[in-house]
Specification:
The chain is mainly β. It has a single domain (about 30-65, about 75-155, about 175-230), classed as Jelly Rolls (Sandwich), CATH 2.60.120. The protein is about 10% helix and about 40% strand. The two termini are about 30 Å apart. GO terms for molecular function: iron ion binding; L-ascorbic acid binding; procollagen-proline 4-dioxygenase activity.
Length: about 230
């Protein structure tokens, strides 16, 4: 399948207040494939996740599609926001990710921060992102991204009363079902399957070593995701 298409990005200057991000202590890591693929439990608190959802809804999502496999692109149907915010990227990096990446090197280079291009994804019932790989991005000044960062803002095992700003997409009374992020080996065998859970961060290497992966169809509720990339220099 083709690499993920970032064309049509909606970049905006916003006045919305992001939540105050607390410093993360004693983060629990679950390695799914050595250092190439791992999750971090409770990276965002419930309050932080809800605040990001409300801020994103106040900006307004735009549907992101693709031309499809016949045109060399992965099937994609989700709603998306993109904002350039170096301060937010640095805040989240310093809150705990910097320490997690202190012993990870790629070709002698070390992790130096997050891509300031922050994206928010929303998947409603029936929406999904087909099998694809994530491309490495040259950020200039010797910096290049090598890891994808996804932080699930919704999902889990118990319903919560959340009042998202857009009532048309408020499925707070419903548990989130579906929407798993699934990784495949070169032989098309499932390597890992991660169910969206509020506050959990998923990190995986991308670029040349990126595993083929997909975001499965959401069958109930609304899946919200915070997205950035880890840069090395």
């Amino acid at each position: 399948m083709g690499e993920r298409r970032e064309a049509g990005t909606k970049k905006q200057t916003i006045a919305s207040r992001w939540p105050l991000i607390k410093s993360k202590q004693n983060l629990q890591i679950t390695r799914l494939k050595d250092k190439d693929l791992f999750t971090v439990q409770n990276f965002f608190t419930s309050a932080e996740s809800e605040a990001f959802i409300n801020a994103a809804e106040s900006i307004g999502f735009v549907n992101q599609g693709s031309l499809g496999p016949t045109k060399g692109e992965a099937y994609r149907d989700n709603d998306r926001i993109s904002v350039n915010d170096p301060v937010l990227a640095e805040t989240i990096w310093e809150s705990g990710l910097k320490k997690l990446f202190s012993d990870i090197k790629i070709r002698g280079k070390v992790a130096v921060g997050l891509n300031p291009n922050i994206r928010f994804y929303r998947y409603k019932v029936g929406q999904r992102f087909g099998r694809h790989i994530d491309a490495s991005v040259d950020l200039g000044e010797g910096k290049r991204t090598h890891y994808t960062l996804l932080i699930y803002l919704s999902g889990g095992f118990k319903p919560k009363a959340k009042n998202y700003l857009n009532s048309d997409t408020d499925s707070s009374s419903e548990l989130l079902a579906g929407g798993e992020t699934v990784f495949y080996s070169s032989r098309n065998v499932v390597v890992a399957e991660v169910a969206p859970t509020e506050g959990v961060a998923l990190l995986h290497v991308h670029g040349e070593k990126c595993l083929l992966h997909e975001a499965r169809n959401v069958t109930k509720g609304v899946k919200y995701v915070f997205r950035s990339d880890v840069a090395f220099a």
